[in-house]
Write a structure and sequence with these properties.
seven-stranded antiparallel beta sheet
């Protein structure tokens, strides 16, 4: 009896906490960067994830993030948030992704430099990935640039914590059903 009451109270508390959190609290904005090889095949070389809850309000519904939750180049983390990083989005429409994005970063091993600029309002985007171990003016230092970089629109996705919370709730329901049988 006590065990059933405890499980029920835990379920109610979990439901109350999830009901009080803002809609965007479990979402992150993700941007993938793909490079086009000589044979036109695509390779995923970069991934940026920004947490909207760590952004600051800029103007009405527009928020700006000056750091990221995760930024990887070829699976390697990018150094701490760069001073030239800025991501802008509409807090009421996270599924629209970034409205503005600019960055100039290097991976932790300092092997790659990645520069990017995207302005959704002007419909302008440019990205440039270079090999940092070669001279800046060496043409062979360019890995992907211009039209060779495909950056499909950013998207809001559920944060892993949200998925874990849902799985935990589902497991609790299955356990309760098993005990009732």
């Amino acid at each position: 009896m006590f065990k059933k009451m405890l499980v029920t109270m835990f379920g109610l508390a979990l439901a109350a906490v999830s009901a009080l959190t803002p809609v965007h609290a479990g979402l992150v904005i993700k941007q993938d960067f793909w490079g086009k090889n000589a044979d036109n095949s695509l390779v995923l070389f970069g991934q940026l994830i920004v947490d909207p809850t760590e952004a600051v309000q800029w103007n009405d519904n527009i928020y700006k993030a000056y750091g990221w939750k995760s930024f990887k180049l070829f699976g390697v983390d990018v150094a701490t948030p760069a001073p030239l990083f800025e991501a802008e989005f509409d807090i009421n429409n996270l599924y629209a992704g970034f409205t503005f994005l600019t960055f100039d970063v290097s991976d932790l091993g300092n092997q790659y430099n990645f520069f990017g600029f995207h302005d959704g309002f002007l419909d302008v985007a440019f990205y440039d990935l270079t090999d940092a171990t070669k001279a800046y003016n060496d043409p062979s230092s360019v890995i992907f640039t211009g039209e060779d970089v495909v950056a499909p629109g950013s998207q809001a996705v559920s944060a892993p914590a949200s998925a874990a919370l849902l799985l935990m709730g589902f497991a609790g329901l299955m356990l309760r059903r098993r005990q009732a049988a």
